[in-house]
Amino acid sequence: MEKVIEKNVTCPKCQGAGKFNVYSSINSVQDPELTGKLKNLSLFDYTCPHCNARVTFDYGLLYHDMNKKIMIYYKRKEAEAKKVADMFLGRGIYDVADDLKGKYLYRVVRRKRQLREKIAIFDANLDDRYMELSKLYYLTKFEAEFPDLEAEWIYIYGKDGIFYIAFSTKEGEISTTFDMAVYNHMKGAFPEVSDPLRGGEVFIDQAWAMKQMSNRTMGELLSGSVGGDLKITIS
Fold first, then answer.
1. Are 85 and 202 in contact (CB under 8 A)?
2. 109 near 118, Cβ under 8 Å?
């Protein structure tokens, strides 16, 4: 499979024709410039050469960190995501090479923001499983403190060495600084999650975090001394 394919595209605003590069994979070691564009999601942006309109083209790709031995596959469609998961877990027709099994950390995501989130988490040498549990913690606090707002999506992003947690609502995107004390709190509350990162689950998301709760309630885990009040910014 070619790493990059030049696609003919049409601007939805002026109908002008143009070219757009679609990448099947990005290697963080070999492609530092493209990796930077992937991290800020500008890799998916296209500027029309005729009217300067900015358009986002969405497509799946593989992110590969050779140094940390991490592969994160972004696939929008559920069926395609499951096929990739089967490949990573050795259940597919085309499995990962035998010499890579047990050595790589594999993840499958279905949103671009999830991809950016995972990269930021692993760049900081953190465990995405405790981050997902932390997101549930913050979501519970958000719902309690802002009952009139509904979070359609919640995600973490890093900027200038600081992590933020954002809630996507109909009123706009609401964000607050992420307190690492919450992450450490979850590590202590869920010691059973501390199995090695490599191997096992590849879908680590909100649904996974909910399963870990089992018979617990978030009320048992909430503590006024951890995380504090949400100091939000609406954009």
1. yes
2. yes
Helices 128-145, 180-189: inter-axial angle, 10-degree rounding = 110
Q: Note whether 10 and 49 are within 8 A (CB).
A: no
Of 167, 187, 183, which Cα lies nearest the Cα of 175?
167
Phi, psi of 139 (to 5 degrees): -60, -40
The Cα–Cα gap between 199 and 103 comes to 8
Report yes or no: 176 and 146 within 8 Å, Cβ to Cβ. Answer: no
Nearest to 223 by CA among 175, 172, 188, 177: 188
Q: Which of 52, 115, 48, 50 has the alpha carbon at shortest distance from 81?
A: 115
Half-sphere exposure of 134 (CA within 13 A, CB side): 27
How far is residue 46's CA from residue 28's CA, in Å, rounded to a whole number?
22
Count of residues making up the chain: 235
Q: How far apart are CA 90 and CA 100, in angstroms?
A: 11
42 to each of 39, 45, 107, 117, 200, how far by Cα in Å? 8, 5, 22, 15, 31
Report which DSSP code applies to 56. E
Tens digits of residue pLDDT in 68-120: 999 999 999 999 999 998 888 877 655 555 555 567 899 999 999 999 999 99
Q: Where are the domains of the chain?
A: 60-234
Cα-Cα end-to-end distance for the chain: 40
Q: What is the pLDDT of residues 164-203, one digit of tens each?
A: 999 999 888 888 899 999 999 888 888 888 777 666 789 9
